[in-house]
Amino acid sequence: MTFGKKLWMTLFLFVIIAVGAAFGLAYMLYEKLYVESVKTELATSAKSIASDYEGGDLTADFIDRVNWFSEKSTFEAFAVHNPRELAACIPYEADYETLIGPHERDLLLQNEMIEETGYSDRFDRQIISVIYPLLDGEQLKGIVYLYIPLERIDELVSSLIMFWAASAVLLIVLLLYGGMKWTAYVVKPLESMKKAAVRLSKGDYKARVPEGSHDEFGQLARTFNEMAEAIEQEDEQRKTFIATVSHELRTPLSYIKGYSEAAIKGIGDQKRQLEIIHRESTRMERLVNDLLHLIRLEADKMTIEKTPIPLAEIVHRTVDTFRLKHPYFQLDLDEETIVNGDEGRLSQVMTNLLDNAIRYSEKNSPIQIELKQERKRIRWTVRDTGVGIPEEEIPKITNQFYRVNKARTRNDGGSGLGLSIVKQIVESHGGELVIKSKKGLGTTVTVILPAISEEGE
Amino acid sequence: MKKIIVTVFMLLTGCGHPSFDSVKTDEFAAVLTIKEPGLTFVNPQGSIFAEWSFDELYTGGVLFDDNILLYGSELDHAVLYSIKTGEKTGEWTVPSGITAASFIDETNEIAFSVKKDGAVHFFNSSGTETKSTKTGRYPMSMLEHAGNLYVINYQDTVLSEIDVHTHNVTREFAIPTSSTGLAVKELSNEIWVGGHGYGAEASDTIHVYSLETGSLAATADAPVMPIAFAEKNGYMYTASHGSSTLYAFDPDRKRIAETEAPANPFAVALFGNHLISAGYDSGTLSFHKEETLEKTKTVEIGKGPFMIFVKEGE
Asked: What is the CATH number of the domain that holds A139?
């Protein structure tokens, strides 16, 4: 069952209950009020008739007057003076049903009026009755008996029921029509969201829903659209990434293929060819390694195992591995610097930064490495005087496969992933990567890491 | 010590038969009330001097010697109280559905009319049933006179005459149905039968039968529903409860006086030189002069007075 149907059925149920309850309540109220008013009227009439009684035996004139009243009024009325009807013979065993019982007689003798509602054997129907005593001193000379059959009230109520039933049907129809419209209005955004979700799931990342209102549905639509936007971007990035990776791999592969074919055919300098094949396969290896690295970092699969590490030692060790490639380093290291981090990852940071600095610097230009502990952080700086980066390129420099040199000449041979990896590692250590550069003057890369507090971490 | 106190307390309060005010005088009228079950004793001056109240409803009784035997139409026992001491002196097992009782001087027996089996049951003075005699449907009013017990069968059209020695029905008089109330006028050897009326129809007529022939001798008008009688020196008095009226008839059966009775009177009696009548609705007892019926006194007697017992010396 759809949500719309559920909503509609709930509404339908509520409408039925509400109309039914209103009907029942009104009926009860009507009957009660009406019956009460009839009783009051009966009592008033009985009292008024009884006020004409002047004591002594009931006269024919009095009885006639009561009969006249009965004819003219909506009530049935009669006067009774037969003592047998008035239960005068109790305590003798009554051999027939008297009009009133001994209890009523006692009440009447105390000049109390009796009101009764219910079935009367005497009249064989439901009645509302009022009995008013006609007392002469202590003697019950008679009674005035007024009643109205309940059917007359029921007749009135039944006409009301017809009116009510018609109103109820009209009300139900109106409410249900309104309810259907409202349900459709409520369900519409959900429907469009469902359709959009289906399109998304089938790969149509351009699917969006109208945002319209400012209520919860509008908010949900906006959130949905943001989600769709994110998925679309992610998809875009994935496509770009795959395209880039394919492209990056194709260049060394074409080298390898070409030179290996030449070697097989015995064309050219075989040693030279093998050197190129080796260089390009090394490049590919590095590219694949970097990629794997990056993917692991992004997927958060590579857990960072943090231990207190003297950072200067990492710097020394890494610099030593680069001395063959580049002999000229200027080190300004605070040897006391201890950082809480993953030794392997931080070595990677140093390696990637030095690799970049050396790659884009003249062989004899100095590369400066500084390591300084400030109050709560450590500044780890690598500065070169190489080609530098145009200012507008700096924000994009940490993007994957981004290179300043778009020509991708293999002379500077980077994979375009180094700074991406550095950024990931630094951020996973709670640190920050700051790059400053001027074209032709060199680049300064600063890694800011949180220092171990004195309380110890 | 505690045990003694508890025992004394129990003796004083709980167990044992209830004891009422003793009645030392031989001249009183006792009025049985049934809305609030009790017996109220009045002296000839109209002063209440003793009041007994009961835990169960007695609808009638009979006075003999210094005792009063009380029965209830719904009870299966009758209780005997000594008037002199106010103590309960016995409890008889009787058939339930008793409508009337009569003391028979000649045999010292009590007769109970019982509606359920349509019979009169005779008990000796020690409370043992000696005989029962079928009379008719719903025997109700009884009167003993000259060796005969006269019984009106309320839902029948027969008045039965029972010989008190043989306990056999000797004669049956044809009477209207729903007759009630009975009196004998010795002077003219006749029996007066009151009328209640059948169904919604209220009777206004007293039927007078000759005791000699058993036939209707006369009728007398006493509206509405004459049901209780008292006779003295040939003067007959009746209470009509439907109109709350007392009537007086002279020895020639001529209505010589009528007056308003207490509301809804079921009992009338001669007491000293007064006619007294008790109103069931008003709860009062009124005193009237004989013959003229002039009212001299009204006494509040209790709720629902229904029967009067009179004792006037030995």
From this structure: 3.30.450.20
Please state which of the ranges A64-68, A72-76, A91-95, A397-401 shows the lowest mean pLDDT.
A91-95
Position A208 in a domain: no
> Which chain B residues are within 8 Å of A139, Cβ to Cβ?
244, 260, 263-264, 281-282
Confidence of residue B314 (pLDDT cuts 50, 70, 90): low
**Per-state percent for chain B, helix, strand, coil, to nearest 5:** 5, 55, 40
Contact A91 B306 (CB under 8 A): yes
- Test B264 with A92 for CB contact under 8 angstroms: no
Q: Does B194 touch chain A (CB under 8 A)?
A: no
CA-wise closest residue to B22 among B103, B81, B64, B91: B81
Nearest CB to A109 within list B155, B242, B281: B281
Question: A58 to chain B: nearest residue by CA?
Answer: B243
Cis, bond preceding B224 (omega within 30 deg of 0): yes
- Domain span at B131: 58-174
Per-residue pLDDT, averaged over A126-150, amounts to: 90
Band (pLDDT 50/70/90 cuts) for residue B3 is very low
Residue B240 lies in a domain: no
The reported pLDDT for the residue numbered B9 is 44
As a whole number, mean pLDDT of residues A431-444 equals: 90
Structure tokens at A452: 């171990």
Same domain, A285 and A344: no
Which three-class secondary structure state does DSSP give residue B59? coil
Question: CB-CB: which of A82, A89, A105 is closest to B196?
Answer: A89
Note whether B201 contacts A84, CB cutoff 8 Å.
yes
Count the domains in chain B.
Answer: 1
Q: A84 vs chain B: nearest CA distance in angstroms?
A: 6
Nearest CA of chain B to the CA of A72: how many Å?
A: 27
Interface test with B, best of A85, A100, A139 (most B CBs within 10 A): A139
| Residue A98 lies in domain | 3-155
Identify the CATH number of the domain in which residue B139 sits. Answer: 2.130.10.10
Whether B119 contacts B133, CB under 8 Å: yes
Asked, for residue A205, whether it belongs to a domain, the answer is: no
Chain A positions touching B242 (Cβ under 8 A) are: 82-84, 88
Number of compact structural domains in chain A: 3
Report the b/e string of A297-308 with b at 16+ CB within 10 A: beeeebeeebee
B241 Cβ under 8 Å from any chain A Cβ = yes
A62 shares its domain with A149: yes
Query: In a mutagenesis test of the A interface, which of B74, B156, B244, B285 is the best target, namely the one with the most A β-carbons within 10 Å?
Result: B244
Closest CA of chain A from B13, distance in Å: 33
- Determine, for residues A57 and B280 on separate chains, whether the beta-carbon distance falls below 8 Å: no
Flag whether A35 is in a domain: yes
User: Cβ–Cβ of B281/A92 closer than 8 Å?
Assistant: no
Do A148 and A28 share a structural domain?
Answer: yes
> What average pLDDT does the structure give for chain A?
85
Distance CA B135, CA B120 (A): 7
Per CB-CB distance under 8 Å, the chain A contacts of B239 are none
CA dist., res. A116 & res. A143, Å (int): 15
In angstroms, the CA B43 to CA B56 distance is 25
Mark whether A258 and A313 lie in a shared domain.
no
Contacts of B238 (CB under 8 A, 6+ apart): B181, B192, B194, B206, B222, B226, B228, B229, B230, B246, B247, B249, B268
Q: Is residue B179 part of a domain?
A: no
**What local confidence, expressed as pLDDT, does residue A9 receive?**
86
- Of the listed ranges A335-339, B118-122, B207-211, B297-301, the least confidently predicted one is A335-339
A314 and A374 share one domain: yes
Single out the residue in A121, A138, A155 at which a domain terminates.
Answer: A155
Whole-prediction pTM value?
0.62
ipTM: 0.82
